[in-house]
Amino acid sequence: LLSSATSPGLHVIHIAAEMAPVAKVGGLGDVVSGLGKALQKKGHLVEIVLPKYDCMQYDRVCDLRALDVLIDSYFDRQLYKNKIWVGTIEGLPVYFIEPHHPDKFFWRGKFYGEHDDFRRFSFFSRAALEFLLQAGKKPDIIHCHDWQTAFIAPLYWDIYAPKGLNSARICFTCHNFEYQGTAAASELESCGLESHHLNRPDRMQDNSAHDRVNSVKGGIVFSNIVTTVSPTYAQEVRTSEGGHGLHSTLSAHSKKFIGILNGIDTDAWNPATDAFLPVQYNATDLQGKAENKQALRRNLGLSSTDVRRPLVGCITRLVPQKGVHLIRHAIYLTLELGGQFVLLGSSPVPHIQNEFEGIANHFQNHDHIRLILKYDESLSHVIYAASDMFIIPSIFEPCGLTQMISMRYGAIPIVRKTGGLNDRLT
Ligand code: ADP
After folding, report:
1. Bridge partners, residue 26, by sequence
2. Ligand 1 mean position, distance from CA 341 (Å)
3. Predicted confidence band at 5 (pLDDT cuts at 50, 70, 90)?
4. What is the CATH number of the domain that holds 238?
5. What's the confidence (pLDDT) of residue 45?
6. Do residues 248 and 294 both lie within one domain?
7. From atom 24 of ligand 1, which residue's Cα is the shortest distance away?
8. Which residues does ligand 1 sit against, CB inside 6 Å?
9. Dist. CA 29 → ligand 1 center (Å)
10. Nearest of 181, 193, 73 to residue 118 by alpha carbon
11. 181 and 307 inside one domain
12. Is the confidence metric ipTM above 0.95 for this complex?
């Protein structure tokens, strides 16, 4: 196993379910890599632990190789072997955990949305800590993210600190309180946590269903510091309207709870060097921006007769949080006002996906509207570059990265004043 190099800074280990560009669903992936790189630049030793998904973008992982030991990890009263892989993603050392469990937890062709997500990620959280213990890591900070790895906090204090993995303090960042990871209390037992000890109102018991446990609540209660992704959202989630049932827990732990505004990775998102763009440009030479607009119109079959016709972009997960009815309205209003509209989005919610497929078909060969209903990293870069304006009509928004990316690419963000969209945008 690799031992931790000595470094003058802190040793920070992120344990997460996403990391851009290899395993990204939304902003969480961007932040794990962006924050990791930023801390590394400041001289800290940063390592990341991820599940080894079958559907990762393996071509973006450098020097991927398996370590020659298997790690035994407890689940459902048995030990399961895990193969540990190591590689580098954009200069960051990353460990990938491949469980040898018959349920093939990360061999599903997708990252989330499986019936056993609670089991998949409680397994991963435990295996990640087991790996750190057996590898002899002595991190200063273990940083876990969202409900998928919030299990780390109770697992660390109840099981791993007593076993000797006790150099660290735990930071839990919640990127969106809408997703909390709840399950019947007994399901907690699988990863070795004791439900009778934790299913209590001041510990992991869900605030609305008392026979259920809530992993985000466990992350809040058992971490040393809890952060969320913007100051405004940190205020909103302390209220009963914005707290998704966790406002009382957050208020009880308010001394260790803080909102820190996310930033974007300005190397990955840089129109002057962006290899996905047909033409690079910068703030003092915008000719390239016009050429990207031309290229996108040509590729999507939109009319290019009027170069001054404004192009409105929107890149989003199509979920109720993002204001899907307002996005739909914006498509028709843009058309009415003489603009062009390009939407890149996909939805895990079947009725929303169907509705937008209907709109996409309706405008299939239209001169001014195009809806592309999939996840496409390279197209997203070109749309930011081509857009004059960018809409983000979120109903709530913990931080939002697309307003920052669009500003970086010279497109004016038009947003609803909520959460991070209300905070400083640069
Ligand atoms: P969230 O995390 O709620 O999805 P954010 O604004 O924090 O929202 O982050 C969204 C990130 O995901 C941005 O980097 C955005 O460009 C990207 N993204 C969203 N939908 C798509 C898509 N369909 N194709 C490519 N990238 C997408």
Report:
1. none
2. 17
3. low
4. 3.40.50.2000
5. 98
6. no
7. 375
8. 26-28, 30, 315-317, 344-346, 375-377, 380, 399-402
9. 9
10. 181
11. no
12. yes
Measured distance CA(120)–CA(124) in Å, rounded: 6
In the block, which residue shows the tokens 């954009």? Answer: 90
In a domain, 241, yes or no: yes
Last residue of a domain, one of 243, 259, 275: 259
DSSP alpha helix (H) spans, 258-396: 287-300, 324-336, 350-362, 377-386
- 320 and 252 inside one domain: no
Rg (CA), the chain: 22
The CA distance from 398 to 392, in Å, is 13
- Global pTM exceeds 0.90: yes
Ligand 1 center from residue 316 Cα (angstroms): 5
> Which structural domain, as residue segments, surrounds residue 137?
11-259
Whether the bond into 21 is cis, omega within 30 of 0: yes
208, with CB counted inside 10 A (0-12, 13-18, 19+), is: exposed
Within a domain: 295: yes
Tell whether the model's pLDDT for residue 6 goes beyond 80. no
382 pLDDT band (50/70/90 cuts)?
very high
From residue 308, give the alpha-carbon distance in Å to each of 311, 357, 389, 391. Answer: 9, 29, 13, 19
231 pLDDT exceeds 90?
A: yes
Number of structural domains, the chain? 2
> Among the three residues 239, 259, 279, which one is the final residue of a domain in this structure?
259
Report angle CA 360, 362, 365 to the nearest 5 degrees.
Answer: 85
CA distances from 2 to 94, 134, 263, 323, 329 (A): 12, 10, 31, 46, 54
Q: Which two three-digit tokens encode residue 132? A: 């750190």
Q: Which amino acid is at 231?
A: P
pLDDT in tens, 241-264: 999 999 999 999 999 999 999 999
pLDDT at 2 > cutoff 80: no
Query: What is the rounded average pLDDT of the residues 99-127?
Result: 97
Neighbours of 315 (CB within 10 A): 24
